[in-house]
Specification:
Blueprint lengths: L1 H29 L9 H10 L1 H35 L1 H14 L4 H12 L3 H24 L4 H9 L4 H12 L1 H25 L5 H10 L3 H35 L1
Helix pairs in contact: 2-11, 3-4, 3-6, 3-9, 3-10, 5-6, 5-9, 6-9, 9-10, 9-11, 10-11
Length: about 250
């Protein structure tokens, strides 16, 4: 099993390097125009040339992502606990949560710009909407997936509903909770970039739009690389925290 895992970790950089080599070779052989499909070397060169500008836009998008993700985390945790603690609240809120996911973000983003202006608030709210549902669904499923026999045993031992929630359900819900967090982290950067398309002065979404309008395809690809890297960093950061939390829970 360990050999298989090590092989899997090694195959990712090897396959990535192979893709880059094939991509560079095909662009060179086919003489593809730079505005159509740039070579990886051209993307790297564009990233180096626009690095200060890219970092400024990245800092804006990253701030939106952090604020939105943190707000969604707190909001999801509170609402999930209330929904599990009070079944009436679950029956009221759950349908609206599902309905909220049927509305495309490219429709909500312009409305948020009209309602809240062109500052950072509408972008943060879009990130909250992107992150809220997967976190809440994962946490609620985890909180409600405990064995009924265990609840009955604790009730016989005269444990209060709050004690059952905090001592049993919350610890057992951690795997599902972190699954929702990882999904939300993967999509949070995309949500921020999408909100910037509608109206913003800075951010990776604005840099992407400007590069597209001026046919600077290499700079556009450089922007996409940064978006992917940010998403992966957030995803693996949550995964690292998950391992530590689960390991600590198992030790207890």
């Amino acid at each position: 099993m360990r050999k298989f895992t090590n092989t899997g970790k090694l195959s990712l950089p090897v396959s990535f390097a192979a893709i880059i080599i094939v991509w560079e070779t095909l662009v060179y052989i086919l003489k593809t125009p730079n505005y159509l499909i740039p070579a990886p070397s051209a993307v790297v060169q564009a990233m180096i040339e626009a690095f200060p500008v890219l970092m400024r836009h990245t800092s804006v998008t990253l701030l939106e992502v952090i604020l939105g993700f943190a707000s969604a985390l707190v909001l999801s945790a509170v609402i999930s606990l209330l929904m599990v603690r009070f079944s009436v609240l679950y029956k009221i809120l759950w349908p609206y949560m599902v309905i909220s996911q049927t509305i495309p973000l490219y429709i909500l983003a312009p409305l948020f710009m009209i309602w809240f202006g062109f500052g950072i608030l509408p972008k943060v709210l879009i990130v909250v909407l992107v992150c809220f549902f997967p976190i809440t669904v994962g946490f609620v499923q985890g909180l409600t997936s405990t064995e009924p026999e265990l609840d009955e045993l604790l009730q016989v031992m005269r444990a209060t509903p709050s004690q059952i929630l905090w001592k049993v359900r919350v610890p057992q819900a951690m795997p599902q909770f972190f699954s929702g967090l990882k999904i939300a982290a993967a999509y949070s950067v995309t949500g921020a970039v999408l909100s910037e398309w509608v109206g913003a002065q800075e951010g990776l979404g604005i840099f992407l739009t400007r590069s597209m309008k001026t046919f600077k395809t290499a700079a556009l690809f450089a922007d996409i690389v940064i978006i992917v890297v940010l998403s992966l960093i957030l995803f693996y950061a949550i995964s690292l925290i998950e391992k530590r939390v689960i390991r600590r829970r198992n030790l207890l």
